[in-house]
């Protein structure tokens, strides 16, 4: 919680004023029983009607002032907490925007979302409660003790003694119940996991007719959860009765002892009345304390989770040069590049090992290899989605880590394996990288990506809504939109990461042909599974277990590279050779 | 999640999807639609623990009694013993008070102890019912909803019900008892003073009403704004990789800021107004206190009441106003819990798959003859996905389904497994209409390997054993061997006991697929379905998997859907599907001779290097 104090700073005035107001409310509240005692002592016992009237009026005034103070506190507490929450949300969002892909891998996107939504709300609420109740409750507690000590030292000491015992007991209960609640959370997670898996794998469950089995499994998880929750709740159930009993016992003690003091004339009846009220007040604030403690422990978990995000430093930092870089992107060179997603210390376990090659303007460089051979990782290093672990990547002779990040990425159009579309129209999605693009530009990009035809067949054409609440597009259609999105920015470097896998063969061929035309002056990286997709590339990199197993044209590789020949055979067999060569010569 | 559960894949006109059912965006309203019926329904669950329920009610009543007796006795002690200086029986009064408080504490504990179990057990049963319902619902139900939506029914909604049962209900009962009890006690002490205290009630209720009216308006605005922000956050994070690749961070931050500012100002208003409820209630409590002290003082001055009565009243008035303050709050909590329960019941009321429907054909050995007779089907009434599909597969044959994406191949599988029910025509297995077969029995005869190899969290052994739960370790390993999976499993540090995480990310796609094949081998079905089982792996891995599949298909009627025609060249019969119709059928050689759709497709792939 303390780690977030930085976000409280701008509102320090509110943060100070709110408790101050609350302090006044507490003082006014505390005055009431003493004033009531005055009515009894001077008014009733000593028969003075005027004192009753005056004191009554004073009490009304106190109540009104208390109300004003309370409302004031609320205004400032709301202001501080809402602003604090909004700032924190913005800080989180800003932070996450700077995250590298590596950071994103460590935080699952699901937890990032809850951190930015639920957790912020939790902490924000705590802040408000903190500014109100955390002053009010101890204020009333301490104030009541002070007031009672002032009224009568001996009676006051009874109250103080009881409170010390109580605080100790409360501490023990909370100490004991805390691990129980952690256990409940773990059991709840188990229930949710089972459920989540069943929803995701419902077809498998049904196909194997495993409902009974799943139901039994769930029953067990459900039982475990319910039992641990009951156990925890039952421990906490002791809280209220114990606090109430002890406080009431104290009340009886004060009444009996106080009564005898009244007879000895060392205490007035009215003071005894006031005492009884203070004890009741202490009791109700104590009962509040336990709710507060639960709140705090919940929110401190949230605060911790938020802080984790905020203190994570992006692993990719843009080079601070302000100088105008004019990147031509004429040449890219990998020099002994090694990469590991962290963890693996043994270079043999690295995802990429000693990768060196270079390519220049006008070239298409294809990358082929088995799943997991490092193809995607390799291309993701180019726009610095990840940074190399060893070696370097040079663009026009400059290490890309020495280039401004925005400049670098601005030169690269990349189509990721998964084609994610945002909520909005097709037009907005294609124009994502260049929001002010003209309709003609958008259509041109769509035409090259072989998307124009299907878009115009949609009921609303380019204005058709897609994304979470929009129409469902097929995988191939989404891929084509993602390609159009990358083409629109007319990048000097285009990276297609296996982004045509869902296209039928005819469409894919047309796409490749039209790309070849417009990418004459650019560098194209093309990851593919099929020999036919890479056969015409200027250079083919064959990846095997993170290293380059071969590099060259189709012809060269067919003669020199075993892995390539292997892939070739798996797709064409011996018989297919003729077709492949025919294809290449055409 | 595996996108294979999305029927849109096989819908030739996916743009009609929107009228297929509720979209995830439609969130049910917070207010309950039929509170009475829902409450009655919750009652049927509570009823099962009638004893516990009565125990809670009785102990709540007793707690209220003891709580009310306290101030009465204190007042009596002051009036009868302290003021007149009467020693005789003074200590007895103290003991009586202590006894009452002790009993009060004991019953408070009992009440909370029992209520905790009552709430948890009730919700546990509801959760179990919900889960079992999920097991019975047709696949269509899951295709139409997001997981998040269904998850939140079992988590948020039920949690809400549980909290309400645990706290709100007890508080509500106790509020009522305390309200009635304190009025009764006050009346017994002084009629006039009681009337004065009761006069404050309209004051409290008007204030509460006014504020709740305002807050509701601002709160719904706040909720809407928060929903917007959360939605935006969700999308930006899911699509963050795209945002970064396009360098759009600044733009999306700008959009976020705008929404966040809106939330900030709306939230500020909502909090400021709702937060003033606390001080206002405190002030009314204080005012009541003043009225009692001052007017009580005057009454006492005129000897109408005693000091002890003032003391008792000061106590009762707070016990009287507190429940009134809380009632409104409790009512709102109750409302939202009822709405939550309603959403749960909504699922429970959805029509099940009807696994226990009337079965006219007894379970018997299935040889695997499959016949489709003029089958028509559409996911929605207005779009026909399959038109007049007829074919026959003899036991042990391999049938290939070929055709462009969206032609209706997966739909045929969905019908054969009865994930969806046909609308006209009939499907026969061994001459029996599958609608006359027990669904459980039917599915046990069918082994399914899907494109997205789905693995559960658990060990590899458990994942394979999923195919047949009573299989021995040896049988599991034998199945893995047949599926070509044994060698890679043995290379893992923990072998068959390797834990897979929920996403299965510690295995490659191809390895996962081999596991699901092993699972199907173990199940030993008479009919096997391979739906694009190898399209998400590279060609060399595919080669490996195909070897495994050949073993698997031996002696079973198998249906194979594949993009790569090389996979299915050996099929006994190839069905070429286009736009929901069978356009050609026959063996590979026959179809090539026809020089039609298939031969075109095949030659096209051959030149593309797809076919070996």
Summary of the model, kept short:
With 586 residues, chain A is of the alpha/beta class.
Account of the protein in words:
The complex is a heterodimer of chains A (586) and B (612). Chain A has helices at residues 12-45, 49-98, 101-106, 109-151, 153-200, 202-207, 211-236, 239-263, 269-311, 375-380, 405-410, 426-430, 439-448, 452-457, 475-488, 505-518, 531-534, 554-560, 562-572, 577-585, and strands at 331-339, 352-360, 364-369, 390-395, 398-399, 412-415, 424-425, 465-466, 493-497, 523-528, 539-544, 547-552. By secondary structure, chain A is of the alpha/beta class. Chain A folds into 3 domains: 1-152 and 292-315, ABC transporter transmembrane region fold; 325-411 and 495-586, P-loop containing nucleotide triphosphate hydrolases (Rossmann fold, 3-Layer(aba) Sandwich); 418-490, 3-Layer(aba) Sandwich (Rossmann fold). In chain A, helix 5 (153-200) runs antiparallel to helix 7. The model of chain A is unreliable at 582-586 (pLDDT under 50). With 612 residues, chain B is α/β, with parallel strands linked by helices. Chain B folds into 3 domains: 35-187 and 326-350, ABC transporter type 1, transmembrane domain (ABC transporter transmembrane region fold), CATH 1.20.1560.10; 191-304; 370-607, Rossmann fold. Chain B is 61% helix and 10% strand. Chain B has helices at 35-46, 50-82, 90-136, 139-143, 147-189, 191-238, 240-245, 249-275, 277-301, 307-349, 409-416, 439-444, 460-465, 473-482, 486-491, 509-523, 539-553, 588-594, 597-607, and strands spanning 370-377, 386-393, 398-402, 424-429, 432-433, 446-449, 458-459, 499-500, 527-531, 557-561, 573-578, 581-586. In chain B, strands 6-9-10-3-11-12 form a 6-stranded mixed β-sheet, with helices on both faces. A 4-stranded antiparallel β-sheet of chain B has the order 2-1-4-5, covered by helices on one side. A two-stranded antiparallel ribbon of chain B has the order 7-8. The longest helix of chain B has 48 residues, at 191-238. Mean pLDDT of chain B is 80; it is low at 1-30. Chains A and B meet through helix 1, helix 2, helix 4, helix 5 and helix 6 of A and helix 2, helix 3, helix 5, helix 6 and helix 7 of B.
């Amino acid at each position: 919680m303390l780690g977030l104090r930085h976000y409280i700073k701008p509102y320090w005035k509110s943060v100070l004023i709110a408790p101050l107001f609350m302090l006044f409310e507490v003082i006014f509240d505390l005055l009431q029983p003493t004033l009531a005692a005055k009515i009894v002592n001077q008014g009733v016992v000593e028969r003075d009607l005027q004192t009753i009237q005056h004191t009554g009026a004073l009490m009304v005034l106190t109540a009104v002032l208390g109300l004003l103070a309370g409302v004031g506190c609320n205004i400032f507490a709301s202001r501080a907490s809402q602003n604090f929450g909004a700032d924190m949300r913005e800080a989180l969002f800003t932070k996450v925007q700077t995250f590298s892909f590596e950071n994103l891998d460590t935080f699952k996107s699901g937890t990032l979302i809850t951190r930015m939504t639920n957790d912020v709300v939790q902490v924000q609420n705590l802040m408000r409660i903190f500014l109100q109740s955390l002053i009010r409750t101890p204020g009333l507690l301490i104030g009541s003790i002070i007031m009672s000590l002032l009224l009568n030292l001996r009676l006051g000491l009874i109250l103080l003694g009881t409170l010390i015992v109580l605080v100790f007991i409360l501490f023990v209960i909370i100490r004991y119940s805390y691990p129980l609640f952690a256990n409940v959370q773990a059991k709840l997670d188990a229930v949710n996991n089972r459920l989540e898996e069943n929803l995701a794998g419902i077809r498998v469950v049904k196909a194997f007719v495993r409902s009974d089995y799943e139901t039994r499994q769930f029953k067990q998880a459900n039982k475990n959860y319910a039992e641990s929750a009951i156990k925890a709740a039952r421990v906490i159930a002791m809280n209220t009765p114990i606090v109430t009993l002890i406080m009431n016992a104290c009340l009886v003690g004060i009444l009996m002892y106080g009564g005898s003091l009244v007879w000895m004339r060392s205490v007035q009846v009215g003071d005894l009345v006031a005492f009884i009220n203070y004890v009741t007040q202490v009791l109700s604030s104590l009962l509040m304390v336990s709710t507060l403690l639960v709140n705090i422990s919940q929110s401190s978990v949230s605060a911790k989770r938020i802080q984790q995000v905020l203190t994570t430093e992006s692993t990719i930092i843009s080079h601070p040069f302000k100088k105008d870089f004019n990147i031509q992107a004429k040449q890219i060179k990998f020099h002994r590049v090694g990469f590991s997603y962290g963890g693996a210390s043994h270079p043999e376990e690295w995802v990429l090992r000693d990768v060196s090659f270079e390519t220049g303007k006008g070239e298409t460089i294809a990358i082929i290899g088995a799943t997991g051979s490092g193809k995607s990782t390799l291309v993701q290093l180019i726009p610095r989605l990840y940074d190399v672990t060893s070696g370097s990547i040079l663009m026009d002779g400059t290490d890309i880590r020495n280039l401004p990040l925005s400049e670098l990425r601005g030169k690269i159009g990349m189509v990721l394996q998964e084609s994610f579309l945002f909520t909005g129209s097709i037009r907005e999605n294609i124009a994502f990288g260049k929001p002010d693009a003209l309709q003609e530009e958008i259509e041109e990009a769509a035409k090259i990506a072989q998307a124009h035809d299907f878009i115009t067949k949609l009921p609303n054409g380019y204005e058709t809504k897609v994304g979470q609440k929009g129409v469902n597009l097929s995988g191939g259609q989404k891929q084509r939109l993602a390609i159009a999105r990358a083409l629109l920015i007319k990048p000097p470097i285009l990276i297609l990461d296996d982004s045509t896998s869902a296209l039928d063969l005819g469409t894919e061929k047309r796409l490749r042909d039209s790309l070849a035309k417009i990418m004459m002056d650019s560098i194209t990286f093309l990851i593919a599974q099929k020999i036919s997709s890479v056969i015409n590339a200027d250079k083919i990199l064959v990846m095997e277990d993170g290293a380059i197993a071969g590099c060259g044209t189709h012809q060269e590789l067919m003669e020199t590279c075993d892995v390539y020949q292997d892939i070739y055979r798996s797709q064409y067999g011996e018989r297919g050779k003729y077709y492949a060569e025919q294809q290449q010569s055409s | 999640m595996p996108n294979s559960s999305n029927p849109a894949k096989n819908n030739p006109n996916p743009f009609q999807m929107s009228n297929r059912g509720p979209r995830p965006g439609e969130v049910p309203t917070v207010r309950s639609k039929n509170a009475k019926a829902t409450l009655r329904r919750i009652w049927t669950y509570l009823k099962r623990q009638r004893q516990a329920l009565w125990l809670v009610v009785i102990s709540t009543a007793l707690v209220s009694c003891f709580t009310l007796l306290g101030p009465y006795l204190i007042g009596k002690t002051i009036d009868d013993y302290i003021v007149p200086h009467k020693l005789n029986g003074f200590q007895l009064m103290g003991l009586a008070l202590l006894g009452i408080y002790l009993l009060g504490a004991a019953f408070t504990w009992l009440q909370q102890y029992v209520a905790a179990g009552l709430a948890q057990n009730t919700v546990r049963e509801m959760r179990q019912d919900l889960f079992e319902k999920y097991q019975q619902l047709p696949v269509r139900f899951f295709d139409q909803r997001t997981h998040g939506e269904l998850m939140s029914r079992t988590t948020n909604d039920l949690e809400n019900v549980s909290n309400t049962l645990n706290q709100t209900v007890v508080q509500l009962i106790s509020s009522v008892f305390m309200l009635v009890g304190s009025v009764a006690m006050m009346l017994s002490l002084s009629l006039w003073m009681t009337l004065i205290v009761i006069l404050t009630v309209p004051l409290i209720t008007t204030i509460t009403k006014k504020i709740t009216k305002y807050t509701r308006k601002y709160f719904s605005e706040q909720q809407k704004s928060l929903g917007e922000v959360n939605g935006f956050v969700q999308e930006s994070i899911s699509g963050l990789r795209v945002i970064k690749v396009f360098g759009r961070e600044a733009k999306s931050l700008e959009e976020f800021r705008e929404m966040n500012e809106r939330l900030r100002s709306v939230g500020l208003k909502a909090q400021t107004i709702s937060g003033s409820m606390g001080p206002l209630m405190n002030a009314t409590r204080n005012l009541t206190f003043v009225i009692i002290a001052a007017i009580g003082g005057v009454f006492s001055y005129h000897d109408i009441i005693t000091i002890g009565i003032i003391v008792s009243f000061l106590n009762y008035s707070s016990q009287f106003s507190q429940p009134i303050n809380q009632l409104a709050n409790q009512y709102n909590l109750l409302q939202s819990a009822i709405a939550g329960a309603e959403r749960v019941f909504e699922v429970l009321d959805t029509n099940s798959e009807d696994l226990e429907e009337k079965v006219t054909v007894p379970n018997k050995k299935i040889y695997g003859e499959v016949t489709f007779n003029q089958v028509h089907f559409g996911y929605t009434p207005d779009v026909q996905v399959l038109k007049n599909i007829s074919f026959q597969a003899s036991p042990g044959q391999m049938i290939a389904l070929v055709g462009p994406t969206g032609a209706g191949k997966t739909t045929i599988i969905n019908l054969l497994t009865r994930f969806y029910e046909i609308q006209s025509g009939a499907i026969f297995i061994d001459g029996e209409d599958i609608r006359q077969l027990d669904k459980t029995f039917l599915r046990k005869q069918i082994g399914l390997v899907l494109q997205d190899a789905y693995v559960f969290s658990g060990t590899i052994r458990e994942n394979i054993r999923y195919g047949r739960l009573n299989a021995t370790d040896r049988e599991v390993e034998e199945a893995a061997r047949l599926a070509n999976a044994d060698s890679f499993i043995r290379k893992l540090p923990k072998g068959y006991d390797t834990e897979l995480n929920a996403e299965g990310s510690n295995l490659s796609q191809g390895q996962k697929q081999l596991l699901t094949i092993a699972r199907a081998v173990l199940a030993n079905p008479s009919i096997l379905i391979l739906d694009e089982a190898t399209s998400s792996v590279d060609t060399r891995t595919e080669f490996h998997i195909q070897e495994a599949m050949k073993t698997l298909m031996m002696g079973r009627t198998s249906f194979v859907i594949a993009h790569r025609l090389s996979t299915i060249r050996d099929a006994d019969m190839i069905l070429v599907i286009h736009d929901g119709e069978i356009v050609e059928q026959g063996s590979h050689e026959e179809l090539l001779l026809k020089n039609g759709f298939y031969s075109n497709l095949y030659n096209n792939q051959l030149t593309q290097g797809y076919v070996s």
